[in-house]
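Bug #77: duplicate submission created two jobs. Keeping one. Sequence:
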Amino acid sequence: MKQGWSNRAFGIISATLCMIMLALSGCSSTASTGDPASPVVAQAEATSGESVTLVIGAYTVAKDALERIIPQFQAHWKEQTGQTVHFQQSYEASGTQARSIAGGMEADVAVFAMEGDVDKLVKANLVPQTWKSKDAYNGMVTSSIVVIGTRKDNPLGIKEWEDLTKPGVDVLYPNPRTSGGAQWDINAIYGAGLKLAAEKGVDGPQYAKRLLMNIHNNVISLDKSGRASMAAFEYGVGDAIVTYENELLSRISQGVPYEIVVPKHTIRIENPALVVDAYAKKHGTEKVAQAFVDYLRSEQAQRLWMEAGFRPVNKEVAAALPQAKADPEGLFTIEDMGGWDEVRKTIYSKKGIWYQVLAGIE
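Kept job's structure:
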């Protein structure tokens, strides 16, 4: 389990004991204040129905946005129902988080970097195979694109993927074995290679594999998650980072002088959010869990996602996007690459492209 709580019962018992101690000795409570800057921590789930606890298992990149959205939902739900919602939050690399939930971390709601991580919950019989048909967004809550981040004023003049293959360019991206974000990064590079090969009239898979291999040869660190990779870049490691557009926009908005390079060909990222049906049913939280997931796609929440750098899925909010958020000329999707099943087989299987890149197999 993550962030100091071993399971749901432990968090509930601990918070209940603290409430008793409050009455006896004035110990300080860790209750959420509703302030977006305050940490949202585990609370006792009242049997009276006046309060309820939701457990959220999310990928690390979503943390900043969710900590803005959660207090807004708490206020909204309190106004609508009179019920107080407390949250336990766990943030990990998307693949790691999905395996934790599938392995017994009883999250009511999951927010992942990619659709493929939901498959782990389907295989564990925690959510139905029809999870994408529950809403008008095919289960997705945000989108973004894969971009290249550079230092201030782009000192190495990086403009396209090929520039990351040049000698002396130190590159960062996370490990696709643990990070869903990294898989989007690898998909973007390999898919762009296929597109470039078509333009050049050369063999697609061979060209794409060589592009990925040449970039990977310049990668100096494979971190566990997209957030860890971004932290290394912030510390001064590397000349360029392959990452989500929203990760860079979030830091630029805080005054960090990064440059965003949008290659001609890159991939649209789609991030799912869903109720983990089996656990929500077990905890009796289906109604509030579904309301929270629905709220994540509301206009108010989608604007908060956008402030954190994400691209909204809500059509009304998306229609108001500035021109700077226009899609790049060669934007493609995972479906253009054959869908996740084909990508997993081609790139991430035991003898797939990623294995060959790591092994240096031409």
